[in-house]
Amino acid sequence: MANRVVLGVSAGIAVYKACELLRLFTESGHSVRVVPTRDALRFVGEPTWAALSGNPVSAEVWDSVEEVPHVRIGQSADLLVVAPATADILAKAAHGLASDLLTNTLLTARCPVVFAPAMHTEMWEHPATQANVATLRARGAIVIEPAVGRLTGADSGKGRLPDPAAIFQVCRSVLAGAGADLAGRRVVVSAGGTREAIDPVRFIGNRSSGLQGYALARVAAARGASVTLVAANVSLPDPAGVDVVRVESALQLRDAVIDAVADADAVVMAAAVADFRPVAPRLTKIKKTGDEPEAIHLTKNPDILAELGERRRAGEKSPKVIVGFAAETDDVLANGQAKLARKGCDLLVVNQVGENLAFGTPDNAATVLVAGGEAVEIPRGPKDDLAGVVWDLIAARLV
């Protein structure tokens, strides 16, 4: 059965992007009712929304009064998403105002509600807006962090509407039943693969695409968490509502993670971190001379996951839940159990890697080893599904 989605649209220049979000919902089989504000129709008109959704469109509580739309639309929805959500609509929602069909619908909805804000940086950072966002989140609504980028005119900064595909992924996770069980939690996720410079042209690296780490960050944001994603050499669009810190090497990733986990509730180390790095990277490109290549001397990189465990055992301020990943090619569970014992983490996600397995693929399978002996099998499926199981296990330990 198709989910019934209400797409609320408030008045901002990013309204045109909501047309793409609408298409993503309808092409995925969802039934969508668009509820714009009056001023939103000055940007994109009623015929466009009706044609794309296949459903009637109105901003007024007085249209089709016999159907009592100001009550029925919200009552019958499985998801209500407001994109773009202006400072005005966030304020009205936080204070329970009901001045038009959209604000009435927000009051009557008992389904999950997602807001995708879009506004100028000064408006987003204003204490009134931040207080309204905090109020909505405290009530269980998911307010996605706006993206950083070009705004109206020549302005740039935080306040840009996240990419419609990223908003859709958040909504997809919400519709899957995740809820907002991570609301109020701060989490850190690492993703991608580090690169250790040999010279300005060459590096030691690995095949990690960052897809699983990005799925973990995306699902955590959809479940209400404040997420910092430390991304190593990833060419993926930023997940909606996630603060992304970009790094290249293992040393940079270590510093970024240690800084981010200072006040985090959980950390998930999904990045593939190089075990070794060249002792002395060349400042100029190494030339091919003679018959034998020049030896490259390596040294160990810091073991970030083990360091996190050691810091917690030493009584330093650390996340309550520490999760590691182990990519193995053989003796998968035996190697995973040994790693779990060495690292001192709470959960270790062990997956087999190789040709068409894990790295760069849209799906994944894993076994989650739990400190204490339990093992949770996750069958092959979309990486978002694996991320959901991991966050289920984490959320249970944060209670």
UniProtKB/TrEMBL annotation:
InterPro entries to which the protein is assigned, alphabetical: CoaB-like_sf, CoaBC, DNA/pantothenate-metab_flavo_C, Flavin_trans-like, Flavoprotein
Superkingdom, natural source: Bacteria
Keyword entries, A-Z: Decarboxylase, Flavoprotein, FMN, Ligase, Lyase, Magnesium, Metal-binding, Multifunctional enzyme
DNA/pantothenate metabolism flavoprotein C-terminal domain segment(s): 182-396
Pathway(s) served: Cofactor biosynthesis; coenzyme A biosynthesis; CoA from (R)-pantothenate: step 3/5; Cofactor biosynthesis; coenzyme A biosynthesis; CoA from (R)-pantothenate: step 2/5
SUPFAM superfamilies: CoaB-like, Homo-oligomeric flavin-containing Cys decarboxylases, HFCD
Keyword Magnesium appears in the UniProt entry: yes
EC number: 4.1.1.36, 6.3.2.5
Required co-factors: Mg(2+); FMN
PANTHER family to which the protein is assigned, alphabetical: HOMO-OLIGOMERIC FLAVIN CONTAINING CYS DECARBOXYLASE FAMILY, PHOSPHOPANTOTHENOYLCYSTEINE DECARBOXYLASE
Family, as annotated: In the C-terminal section; belongs to the PPC synthetase family.
Name of the featured protein: Coenzyme A biosynthesis bifunctional protein CoaBC
Organism for this UniProt entry: Herbidospora galbida
